[in-house]
Every structure is written in structure tokens, then in C-alpha cells.
Amino acid sequence: MTSVLNRLPRTVAMAVLAVVVLGPLYWITVSAFKDRQEILRSTPTLIPQHPTLDNFRELFTATDYPSYLTNSFIVAVLTALFTMIVSFAAAHGLYRLRIPGADKVAGLILAAYMIPGTLLLVPLYQVFAAFELIDTRNALVIVNVAFTAPFCTWLLRGFLFAIPRSLDEAAAVDGAGPVRMMLRIILPLLAPGLSTVGVYAFVFSWTEFVFASQLLVSDDLKTLPIGLSAIMGQYTVNWGLLMAGTLCTIVPAIVPFLFAGRYFVSGLVAGAVK
């Protein structure tokens, strides 16, 4: 009985946290399958009384959502790819090779991640305008990589520390150079860390709003966060359509994290005792 009472506060806290986190997601999901009359009813229903797919049908046929989805997917995939390349090269050079001053450089890189992005909005816009990159996906990819690479470089630190340095010494005895050692030995062993980095960069790009709203002007280049705000309308809001769009936007961001979530958590704590 005592053990049950000791576990009771933790169980209640976990239940409350689950409701707070999963409650909005559940409400979005059920609302996406309701018709307009049921959504606007004064007495809310927890389960759709007359489930319908009209909201999803209208979303993909009467709006530009497919274009927004394509743009977000292209930007997110490119951001994840280049973030993995940049962060892997930086992390290997800072935490694996014995470079003088590497610790200070690593600290500066992590400090750069703490700079609020909104402070860089105007200068970055001026730079992209000078290079004629405004209203292009390339500008958004560059910005996303600039903000994800510092944190991902630090994230790979724990994974690199978990790889024994004796492998490097054995490879050096066999005549392997630094590049071959990095690509043939370290890279395969770092696959879980790189998958974590890729998921983080993908989700960050998938949900980025501030820079996308300023750097992208054309309707055919807008990403999902910008597109959803356009779907809302100026004077009226089609809540069923908005909930369907929100649900279709959330799912692609959740699925990759389900597979790499445990690696992400282990990367945050790996190497903490070193």
C-alpha cells in the first residue's frame, strides 16, 4: 500500500502531462473528420457523430495545399541532408581530431546557436537580396542549415565520444589517412547520430515560419506554415479544413521522430559524464 501511495503523485503527474500534450492532438484529429455544423455546435463532441472525409478532399482539391506540401518536403529534405554533412564534418574536426583550440571553437559554435533568429532577419534579408536569392528555396535552406548545424554539431559530440579512439589508432597502423578513417570507420558507426541530426533538421525546417514568411513571396513557393495561415482566410475560418491541413502537416513530422527519438535522447545525455 505504501509503494502505491508513493507512486501516486508520479502517476497523476504523468497522466496530467499526457492529457496536456495529447489532448490538443486528439482534438485536431477528431475535428478533421467532423462536418462544419458539428464543429460549430455549442456542445462539443469528443467523437465525430457523422465522420466525413470532405475536409481532406477539399484540402487537396480546392486549395494549394499540395504545392505547400511539396515545397516543405523539398526544403526539409535538403536542410536535413546538408545539416548532416556540415555537422558531421564539424563535429569530427572538433571532437575527434586533436586540433589546438578546438574546445574554444566548439563553445563559440554552441553560443551561436543561442542567438535569437529574429535579430538576424534584417541583415540576412539584405545579404540574400544582394545575391538575388530572395523568393527562392535556396535561401530558406541556407538559413535553416545555419540554425540547425551548430546544435547538431554539439549533438554529435556524445556519439563521437562513444566510439573508442583505439579504432583510429588501429586504422592508422593499417595505413588509413584521416579522410579514409573518417568515411570508412567513423561514418558507419555514427549512423544513429546522423539519423538523429537528420530528424531534428527535418522537423526544424518543417515547422519554420519566421524566415519562410519573409524570404518567400510567390504563392507557388510557400511552405506549409505559411500556407496554413493562408487557408484560414481573412474574415472567416473553415475550421474543418484547417484541422485537416494541420493533421496532414503534423504526421510527416511525427513519423520520423518515432524511429529516431531514442537516439535523440541518448545524444543529449551521451558523454555527459566524460
Describe this structure in words.
The protein is mainly alpha-helical and 274 residues long. Helix content is 74%, strand content 0%. It contains 13 helices and no strands. The chain has helices at residues 2-32, 36-39, 54-61, 65-96, 102-113, 121-130, 137-161, 166-173, 178-189, 191-207, 210-215, 224-231, 239-269. The protein is globular and about 75 Å long. It starts with a helix and ends in a 5-residue tail after the last helix. The model has no long low-confidence stretch (mean pLDDT 82).
List descriptors:
single chain, 274 residues, mainly alpha, 13 helices, 0% strand
The major pleated sheet works out as:
none
Strand content: under 5%
Q: Give the H and E element order.
A: HHHHHHHHHHHHH
**Arithmetic mean pLDDT:** 82
What's this entry about, in short?
With 274 residues, the chain is mainly α.
Write the layout of secondary structure elements.
Blueprint (H helix, E strand, L loop, with lengths): L1 H31 L3 H4 L14 H8 L3 H32 L5 H12 L7 H10 L6 H25 L4 H8 L4 H12 L1 H17 L2 H6 L8 H8 L7 H31 L5
